[in-house]
Amino acid sequence: MTHARLIQAALLAMPLAACAGQMVPPAAINPPPGPPASAFTKPGPLMGMDARGLTQMFGTPRLDIRESTAHKLQFANGRCVLDTYLYAPARGKEPVVTHVDARTPAGTDIDPAACAATLRGR
Question: How far apart are the first and last CA of the chain?
Answer without folding.
Answer: 99
